[in-house]
Amino acid sequence: MEKIYNSESGKHRRNGLRYKVEPSEIKQFKDLGYLILNDVLTEAEMQTLDPWFEHFIMGNEKEKMAKDFCDMSQPYGTPFEDFRLINAMLPSFYRKEFANNILQQISQNITEQLYQNRKAAIDYEQFLAKKPSKEKAEFAIHQDLGYWPKTKNTWTATFSLAMNDADVLNGCLYLIPGSNKEPELRTHKPKDYSSQLEDGSVNREDSHTLVIEVRPDDKLKYLPVKRGSITIHDERIVHGSGGNLSKEWRKTYIIAYRDINTIAEERAMGFTHSHNDKVNWDKIIN
């Protein structure tokens, strides 16, 4: 049976901008590819993020964001009123005053504990919101590294902050523990197979979303978390999330940290994690 290392995490771990991560939790992150930390932010701190989340998710920056404001469950160009899974990429880029927020500060400290003696920085961030009663507001199962260029160092810590309680009913994160140890990435294909070109290369002009096939022996683990708590996963773990069958919104703030040299290598390719990037996907992925 899988051992649970995070049962003792909570607000008692906080000391200023530091949240203590135990050695056993660091081991779980390395071995199984994920971690849960409870009560990382206080309710007062959460309330400093709430207005920004609502600002972006309601589309107040959508004109300047172009494809960075989209539905991750449907093709680009889907009318806003028909969105199911709202995605707002790079909020700190579009509103500089949001940068250096409380989650960014604390997650930086946690990353430095997970990846000791390495220099990490924020690679990208995004807001995700699943509308109520949207069964198809699914985030397709994938590995993050399947979306990104192949760089020398791939290590990543991706934080998902629960802006409200996340559970199976409203589409919390699920993953396959230990799948980060598979020797090869699984094959990723566009969710909309009409977006795959005849030569098998990836066309992301119509939709950004990629998907992999689940194997018969895959065992999914669901990660319900309370508001203010986080999940952290690495770049290779197989994961996704289901639709929202509840009558309330499901809200998540994501921040990903990577090696500063990896970030520089990506940017030299013209890759910023913006859906508006003009890059040769086939060239940088393969």
Describe the structure.
The structure is a single chain. The chain has 286 residues and is α+β, with helices and mostly antiparallel strands. It has a single domain (34-285), classed as Sandwich (Jelly Rolls). Helix content is 21%, strand content 22%. The protein has seven helices and 15 strands. It has helices at residues 23-32, 43-57, 62-65, 91-94, 102-114, 260-268, 281-285; strands at residues 14-15, 18-19, 34-37, 69-71, 85-89, 120-130, 139-142, 156-162, 173-175, 189-190, 210-211, 221-222, 230-233, 239-241, 250-259. The strands form four sheets. It has a seven-stranded antiparallel β-sheet. β1 (14-15) and β2 form a beta hairpin. The radius of gyration is 18 Å and the shape is globular. Mean pLDDT is 91; it is low at 1-5 and 193-202.
Calculate the mean pLDDT score and round it. Answer: 91
Global morphology: globular
CATH fold name, please? Answer: Jelly Rolls
Please give the CATH architecture: Sandwich
Strand-residue proportion: 15-25%
Tell me the Rg in angstroms: 18 Å
